[in-house]
Here is the input.
Amino acid sequence: MSKFADADILDAGRTVLAEAAQCLAAAGAGLGSAFLGAAQVLAAAGGFTLVMGVGKSGHIGRKVAASLVSTGFAATFVHPGEAAHGDLGLADHATLALLLSDSGASDELVAVAPMLKGFGVRSILVTRTADCPLAAHADWVIETKVTAEAGIHRLAPTSSTTTTLALCDALMMASLAIRGFTPEQFRRFHPGGALGRRLLTVADLMAPLADLAWLRPEASIWDVLEAMPGRRGFAVVSRAAKGPGVRLADIGVISEGDIRRAARDRDGFAKLTAGAIMSGSPKAIARDGFAIDALRLMESHRIAFLLCTDAAGSLVGAVHIHDIVATDVMPGRTAPRLTPEG
Here is the structure.
């Protein structure tokens, strides 16, 4: 094994990344009518896409098919070599084929592409240049425009595979934009794991209105102390009856920090009321907001809870920081230590 200085090793790695970035920029600048047509047909409702590729393009194809499925597209990967031995039966259910070939001359794809036409399947080809054998069988040709691989001896697939994958991702995301894809839909396809947790909404975690401690302003400090335990560490203060339609402007809140501050007045503590110690203008978040945003808001204000409102601005519940941290929406994050005001 030859000896390389650290600087040479870093330069070798940076060269690959720099050349890949140049290829991606060139591919982006080259997008045009073929990309538009391909994105629109991929986005069409009721479509089923076959993704095909050989060798490294096949590995990329498997990833692309998995990404399509995970965002609501009907898709599967089919190896071109297996297509001629029965797997082409899937073409009877397909509307579109996504063909991946750097050279545009893969023998297996050149053989299967005309067969797809026979099934009435239209095809998108992602390849180095439209001047290739496969282009004659494709309805849309998206060029990577990669002229050389990166790295030592420029032999291993690097820039070509990176650009092909990026173009497929771009095609998928453009199609999702056409579909009006929402975070809620993404969450539907990712109910588990870190992605699903990060897309939890406040409504998924909040305590409903019926579970909140509710006090009138004239309630005694003893009523406050009795209401707080087991009620998420805070109480709502309002003259309105607990129920739908109560606006944020009509309420205050009492936190554990408010009680600690009130207890500094030992002589007057017993005479205090809920209205005297409550804090006005409580922080709130919409119930359809993301839990991760609620966590960030609580951390920025050093508070332990947020009131939750509906689209009309009425109080519908509250969410506590421990409820969010327990879901691990940010792995490794723990509830912060709060200031006395929290």
